[in-house]
Design goal:
Elements: H1 2-32, H2 34-53, H3 57-87, H4 93-129
Helix pairs in contact: 2-3, 2-4, 3-4
Length: 131
């Protein structure tokens, strides 16, 4: 029985540490990445406007998915940049390509988010403003 209890305690401690590391990563991105502040502002604005417009559940799913996609791309890009800097502290053409491709993933996610945001929010916004 003691072995099982010890395993359970280790499991719980491991999950708690996983969350602590994840939150540390989240705070690192917010503290060090200027674009994360743009994403945070855009997220807040889109969520506020979505509440104000009273969009439906399916629309919320689309909005939240693309918000999550942009944030995930930004976090993965940040991780990639840090790993590339660690592996190649000196300038190298392949390191630049890796970083550029990572940045492109954020751009693609952001463009997709804008397109879906317009598709989802445009008509309710026009209706709300009576244009």
């Amino acid at each position: 029985m003691k072995s099982r209890r010890k395993e359970t305690e280790q499991f719980i401690r491991g999950r708690r540490n996983s969350f602590r590391y994840a939150f540390a990563g989240f705070l690192f991105v917010l503290k060090t990445q200027k674009n994360a502040w743009l994403h945070l502002a855009a997220t807040a604005i889109v969520i506020f406007v979505s509440f104000w417009l009273g969009i439906g559940r399916i629309e919320w799913v689309a909005i939240l998915l693309v918000i999550g996609l942009v944030w995930m791309a930004e976090f993965m890009n940040t991780a990639l940049e840090i790993i590339v800097d660690l592996a190649s502290p000196e300038k190298h053409p392949l390191a630049k390509v890796g970083k550029d491709v990572g940045a492109a993933s954020v751009l693609i996610a952001a463009i997709l988010a804008v397109i879906i945001g317009v598709i989802v929010l445009w008509h309710p916004l026009i209706e709300k403003l009576r244009w």
